[in-house]
Amino acid sequence: MTTSFTIVLVEPDEKIREEVREILRQDGYRVWAFARADSAAQAIAESDTEPSLALLSSGEDPGIDRLLEVLTRNASRCQRVWISPPGGDEVDKLAVSRRPRGLLSRTDLAKEARRLAERVWRTQERGRALVQVPAMLGQSAAMVHVRDLVDRIAQGGAPTVLITGETGTGKEVTARRLHALGTRGHGPFVEVDCASIPHNLLESELFGHEPGAFTDARALKVGLLELAQGGTAFLDEIGELDLGLQAKLLRVLDTRKLRRLGGRDEIPLDVHLVAATNRDLTAEVRTGNFRADLFYRLDVVRVELPPLREREDDGWILGHEFLKEAARRLGRGTLRLPPHLKREFLSYPWPGNVREVRNHMERLALVAPPSSQEVLDLSLPKTSGNASGLTIDFSGGPIPWESIERQAIAGALEAAHGNVSEAARLLGLGRGALRYRMSRLGQKDPEEEAPRKAA
Fold this sequence. Notes:
Blueprint: E1 6-10, H1 14-26, E2 30-34, H2 37-46, E3 53-57, H3 64-74, E4 79-83, H4 88-97, E5 103-104, H5 109-128, H6 141-156, E6 160-164, H7 171-181, E7 189-193, H8 199-207, E8 208-209, E9 221-222, H9 224-227, E10 232-236, H10 243-255, E11 257-258, E12 267-268, E13 272-277, H11 281-286, H12 292-298, E14 302-304, H13 314-329, H14 342-347, H15 353-367, H16 401-415, H17 420-427, H18 431-441, H19 446-454
Parallel strand pairs: 1-2, 1-3, 3-4, 4-5, 6-13, 6-14, 7-10, 10-13
Antiparallel strand pairs: 8-9, 11-12
Helix pairs in contact: 1-5, 2-3, 6-7, 13-15, 15-19, 16-17, 17-18
């Protein structure tokens, strides 16, 4: 933790104020604590530091309007959250008069403030890490065209962008480049893997919730979309959203406002949204699995990433870079791909695309003899496999669906020689969706197991 993350606390109760300030300072945050709002407003107006989070008492304070104006003018990205008043009826009055962006319960306030601060800090740290523009490596005509297109889109500031392409083609890197080169590059970059979050939790993760919104909602939760204020929200595997969430997301895109679960008020949303999918959304629209209105709302600007097999010698270039990166990370000396392996490398189809190249180079760096400066053998599968041949015997009676699902996943992984991206393609799933199912069924991820065995 660094002291660059500043929290403004306005709370007239000295005991509560000091307790919250001490807890947050122990975690390494810089805390400006005030009994009155006008003192906080003056300090912010006179400082060059932009606070990241403001915790504001909801009690009567004549200076609160000025403080809100100063925050809007001097700290537009600052997350503002109110501390609930002691009385129950006062909460309703506050909702009407102040239209709070968030509400922290006074019960265990220090604990809840710590949890919220960590969530906001982590989001902003991810955004700051992206100031350096992510590289989209490759010299093929297809990749040069895509890279130029991405850079033009970023400079144009399109409010929504749709990235399509096979699994492993680099959709996340593309989204990060769009963010870093755009006008919001210094804001947060918040990634949401729609496939890996269980459907019953995804709505709360995206939109957040108010205390009491459902049985386990004991405290305020700021959603991932709201955490992306002033920056970019990247919705990966957007084709995994169910129709109900698609409708809610469409409304957010149309109104640029969101409402937390259990909340009464709409929160203005200043977010650049980038969505990605490896599915054919046009076909999904035809089959009724994806809303046509949301598809057209997203498909204003599209970036279609080519598979590695259509990128000439780019795979070889990527292999060199990833191998060098893996060797450096593992703390070993120079490690190269010798020229005589180029034909074998390029003849392999790389069904998992760029991600598969990166993972395979990681394995090669792990197993290469310490004294060697060159890879001796690529150890590539001879064929990409086929997921056919799966049979299910119902002669013994009903078979649990989880058993069938487990067999299908095991068969696809075997056919794909342990390549999760290729197994996902054979099953018609996104990579994240397959990994979520494997975790739920207790199946091991071969791509995570291989480096451990090699080590």
